[in-house]
Amino acid sequence: MCCVIWNSHCGRMGVGGRGWSVIDILVMGRKMEAVIQYLSVDEAMEIHSSLVARYGGQDGVRDPGLLESLLYRPQTGHYRDVAEMAAALYEAVLVNRPFREGNRRSAFFLADVFLRMNGWQLKTDRAEVDTFLERLEKRGLVRYEYLLPGIRNAIRPQKPDFVIY
Questions:
Q1: 122 lies in which domain range?
Q2: Nearest-5° angle of CA 152, CA 158, CA 163?
Q3: pTM, entire model
Q4: For a tag on the chain, would you pick the N or C end, based on fewer CB atoms within 10 A?
Q5: For position 148, which CATH number holds?
Q6: Who's near 164: CB < 8 A, 6+ residues apart?
């Protein structure tokens, strides 16, 4: 059983302004620290460009300042775990639409890459995600509290690339 207790430090480091924070977690009754990595603006723009190149649409950011602000949202210390942080990022991109086109697709992939950077991944069918989001959009419910349960149900621990014996 693992649960996050609090966000103890937020800061900036690394190439391209990648963010990080140290969070205190409780694992099997012992308090431990975990480092959470965040996407940089450059990484988000590269992910979006790759998606546009593959699936089509107009590349580019509508408002670079808005994109940077959205990427900071999971770093506020308000969220208890990576699922909540991913849901916050997902909602921020879906609602605020920082890219010229492809915001729904980019929101999904940015949340998934964020999770993968931190040892988790979304395990879901892309068609299921589209259907889920269309239902929320039609009812005007594209909000954090409605996205979070879907993300919690779809995330799985990422399998390591290798094991050292």
A1: 38-157
A2: 155
A3: 0.77
A4: C
A5: 1.20.120.1870
A6: none
